[in-house]
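re the bet — no i am not wrong, look at it urself. input seq straight from the record:
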Amino acid sequence: MSDPSQRCTASGHEIPELDPRTRCPQCGGLLEIRHAPPGVSGAALRRLFDERGGGGGTGPHASGVWRFREIVLPTAADAILTYPEGNTPLLARRAVAEWVGAPGLLLKHEGHNPTGSFKDRGMTVGVTQARRVGATAVACASTGNTGAALAAYAALAGLPALVIVPKGQVALGKLAQALAYGARTLVVAGNFDRCLELADQASVELGVYLLNSINPFRLEGQKTIVLEALQQLGWEPPDWIVVPAGNLGNTAAFGKALTEAREWGLVARLPRIAAVQAAGAAPFALSFREGFARRHRVEPRTLATAINVGNPASYDRAVRAIRETDGVVIAVPDDEILEAKAVVDAAGVGCEPASAASVAGARQLIRAGTVRPGDRIVAVLTGHLLKDPAAVTHYHQEIEPPPPRANRPVEIEPRLSDIAKQLTAARLPAS
């Protein structure tokens, strides 16, 4: 098997796998990893992955990323850095499915990763590659989850880490992780897009290794969300995969995973991708409505901070993913995202606000007739409930008038009769 290479998605120019640049040296375009076909394909490749499945044991194959190493980064070998990550559940919850209107809805919960979000899948590959190219420091711009994952994996690797965040726009649970894991955290007066511009400049001019989703090795790790879900479904693809969309790294990674999976015989057909943005940060949805005739940029404003992005870096790669899977892009308002989150939380699953965009989006697609109620849908939950506890208290305690699913705490006198009264009320059906 020949080594992977990095190829520019704009010019087609190729650079070697161990070149540390994260953009095309000719035109500045984004790179993607190009793999030679694995040594086996079809049933033999599925069997190889299935023999490593389940997440037990130790070493790289205990990881839900590295058990797919032949089609992620086959040359990493002894350089692999893993917690392990992945092995996240595929959940069926009737209350969520009924709210969406799709009995076959499944939830792929990436909040079960080590730092509580899907970003760990990309970082295990990205930081592994940073060590392989001899990086002396790693950096990222972040709305929270990327910084938390980078800080954790950099600490595991013993590498200095810079995390650049927009002032006042990062949930406390995420910022706390970056600080706790030891990253030097830089707070910038500006939005995420400005932070990413600075991180990109630092990569070029200061020599730090950039680990935003611009980095093509990040996307190789994020591909495994789809690969693992397909494996959990016995390699029988769903009809739809619904994913929150901010900087569009996952949208791009999912499209790449699916086209490669079909090329190598892992699946016979492609699910359709539905990328869901928050209405206040929906440049990709605007472009989709115009057939991607032009690229939009907006000033983002959404409570779903993980997708609060106005100029998504992986735009071109994500456009290709939507086209190749006959996908769709939609936007949902914050109040529907928060209601979806309340439904997911109350089902005992829990997620951060941006995660719930996929569930709100699935409901919108059902109601619009784009998705049929009988379709098999996998909605991706990208982050853990405790990533943004302020969003929980805001919804349940602060919004006036209280939204229909608000669960207000009740103040009582220190009497058993008051507890009995509340126990009776708790047993009554909601009005």
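see?? The mean pLDDT is 95. told u. also The longest strand covers residues 272-278. so pay up
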